[in-house]
Specification:
Distance between the termini: 68 Å
CATH topology of the largest domain: Rossmann fold
CATH class of the largest domain: Alpha Beta
Shape: globular
Number of strands: 18
Radius of gyration: 22 Å
Order of helices and strands: EHHEHEHEHEHEHEHHEEEEEEEEEHHEE
Number of domains: 2
CATH architecture of the largest domain: 3-Layer(aba) Sandwich
Number of helices: 11
Strand content: 25-35%
Strand order of the largest sheet: 12-11-7-10-9-8-17-18
Structural class: alpha/beta
Oligomer: single chain
CATH superfamily of the largest domain: NAD(P)-binding Rossmann-like Domain
Largest sheet: 8 strands, mixed
């Protein structure tokens, strides 16, 4: 019988909030965290967390019907669960004050991460937040300062650190490539993400949304610091998009190209978009190559090996490495299977495991925030990423205006560990 309980809560029920976060929390409540520590490289914590019970006590969303639907979905994955629904413009306030969780999972829109994080920290609650931590570096620095003062964990869901293909590329192969010269990383999302799935696309951009994964990977695995960047973007499709939900268009970039110069001399171009046509074979287009003085490394999402061609659906590439449902023995053999007949696995879950592991161990007094710094995607590691995000948005906006005026693209940015400066030679 478990003698320790970690109370969890979540806010946000979109594509990730429901399909990834809540789906994972259902397994944590059903089975504990110990079974899932291994693939995140945390198997050595299994014994000390093996008798810990995890319980989802609350789910928050903006709209009441969706909040109830999320509770229903959670109980289908975990029939013994009974989280309380909360809703409203700021559902995290009542949720935190009434449900009193130990760890809050945040899957709100990109522009709405900071308020619930700060509210949780004020109440002594640990946080696991979807990427990016914030869109503005001042907000990220405030989160770091408050979490340090309170001794609380703020973890960021940087799940590509746990993608076995990318991890192997960085850990096993790149070190054999000699001096690193340059690289290119591409992550292009389908059009439906910006036009149908996310109502908040206009408050963000494709680089902030997914480019942050790549900048995290390069900085984390190669231990190099960004020193400057140049950025440009294109606004042709989304600004002219018209439908019932977006009668005035979607005021954001279709695509962005951000070139970051690092302190070791390496230059990396990050290419991101969220207008990929629905007829493209994969859920995303993901590519990476790194070139060094002694070799080069390629990773391509579509080359991982699982394809299908089904009448009416065309040829499709699948990525079960990200998320898959594994049949639980004894359930799969019967014709009428319950909805909790499978366990969720994949690198989408590993990052959440790492954040919850850190929060659990601090909450239970097994370690301190300071002692485990850098062992998970913590708030400190997110600050330079947020600086890149904010600088890239400002540089791309400025360069697009100059380009339209026939003045080239002269704007760039200088980066430090926790800030940036815009260089605009035209304006001095």
């Amino acid at each position: 019988m478990a003698n320790k309980v970690i109370r969890m809560a979540s806010i946000g029920g979109g594509m990730f909030g429901k399909g990834v976060v809540l789906r994972s929390l259902a397994d944590f409540e059903r089975c504990g965290i110990a079974p899932y520590l291994g693939t995140a490289g945390l198997d050595h914590h299994a014994r000390e967390l093996g008798d810990v019970e995890y319980k989802l006590v609350a789910i928050g969303e903006r709209f009441e019907p969706l909040a109830h639907d999320l509770v229903k979905s959670f109980k289908e994955w975990c029939p013994s669960g009974n989280p309380k629904p909360y809703w409203g413009e700021t559902p995290w306030i009542d949720l935190l004050d009434e449900a009193k969780p130990d760890v809050l999972f945040i899957a709100t829109p990109d522009s709405l991460h900071t308020p619930p994080i700060l509210a949780a920290l004020e109440r002594g609650v640990h946080v696991v937040c979807e990427k990016p931590l914030a869109l503005f570096v001042d907000e990220a620095k405030e989160i770091v300062a408050r979490s340090r003062k309170a001794g609380l964990v703020v973890a960021v869901d940087m799940h590509k650190r746990y993608d076995s293909f990318l991890r192997s590329a960085f850990v096993d192969l790149v070190p054999r490539c000699g001096d690193l010269l340059y690289g290119r990383a591409v992550l292009e999302e389908p059009l439906e993400v910006s036009t149908k799935i996310f109502k908040w696309a206009a408050t963000s951009n494709p680089f902030s949304y997914v480019g942050v994964h790549w900048t995290d990977l390069f900085g984390y695995y190669l231990n190099m610091k960004p020193v400057s960047l140049w950025a440009i973007g294109q606004k042709k499709l989304l600004v002219n998009w018209r439908d019932e939900r977006n009668p005035n268009g979607i005021g954001t970039f279709d695509s962005m190209q951000v070139t970051v110069q690092y302190d070791n001399g390496m230059s990396v171009q990050y290419v991101n978009a969220w207008v990929n046509p629905e007829d493209f074979e994969g859920a995303v287009n993901q590519e990476m190559e790194i070139i060094g003085s002694k070799g080069r490394v390629f990773v391509d999402q579509q080359d991982r090996g699982l394809r299908s061609c089904i009448t009416g659906n065309g040829t499709r590439t699948h990525n079960p490495h990200f998320q898959a449902e594994v049949p639980r023995w004894g359930y799969y053999q019967v014709q009428s299977r319950p909805t909790d007949a499978t366990a969720c696995i994949g690198y989408c879950k590993d990052s959440l495991v790492a954040g919850l592991d850190a929060a659990s161990r601090v909450k239970l007094g097994l370690t301190t925030r300071e002692a485990i710094a850098g062992t998970y995607a913590d708030a400190e590691s997110a600050v330079p990423l947020v600086a890149i995000i904010e600088a890239a948005a400002r540089v791309a906006d400025a360069n697009q205006k100059y380009l339209a005026a026939g003045k080239g693209t002269p704007v760039s940015a200088v980066l430090t560990e926790d800030s940036f400066g815009i260089i605009d030679p035209t304006n001095g």
